[in-house]
Amino acid sequence: MGSNQPHLLLVDDDIAAIQVLGRILAHYPEQHFATSGDEALEQARARRPDIILLDADMPGMSGFDLCRLFKRDPALMDVPVIFTTAHPSVAFQVSAFDSGAADFVAKPVAPDHLRSRVRAHLQDTWNPSGQADAAE
Questions:
Q1: Whose CA is closest to 117, among 55, 57, 52?
Q2: Domains, the chain, ordered by start
Q3: Helix (H, G, I), strand (E, B) or coil at 17
């Protein structure tokens, strides 16, 4: 891949929500976007992301279903998935974790919280230089 930056895949059927996430995570310039489950699968298989931010409520394929597909794919199963959704209930969070999510961030997203969760998961899975994330 040749990039010294982690690759983020932001998935939400609401383009405005993707733009907000993209701005919050702007110090990670390798961002790709998808507005449907099928598009997200296609993009993830074409270029394996280092982390996926995923909305649970999408028409057609839900975020839960999409996360399960990611976790069944040998090339993507170890990619951390962080759900971003407006459903704050514990039952909803449990469903996210049951589908294979690594984390859950409620909308409206608190920028510092989202950045810290992304950074924590990237440090667990992506660190080619062996050094801490210098972007912060």
A1: 52
A2: 8-125 (3.40.50.2300)
A3: helix
Give CA separation, 124 vs 58, 79, 84, 106, in Å: 28, 10, 19, 21
> Exposed/middle/buried for 90, CB within 10 Å: 0-12, 13-18, 19+?
exposed
Cα–Cα distance for residue pair 51/56, rounded to 1 Å: 16
**Rounded average pLDDT per 10-residue block, the chain, 136 residues:** 81 97 96 97 97 94 96 97 89 92 93 96 70 41
The C-alpha angle with vertex 133 and arms to 26 and 52, in degrees rounded to 5, equals 55
Residues in the chain: 136
CB burial of residue 49 (10 Å; 0-12, 13-18, 19+): buried
State the DSSP code for 39.
Answer: H
Distances (CA, A) of 102 to 54, 59, 77, 98: 11, 22, 11, 10
Q: What pTM did the predictor assign?
A: 0.89
113 CB neighbour count, 10 Å cutoff: 12
Within the chain, what is the greatest distance between any pair of CA atoms? 40
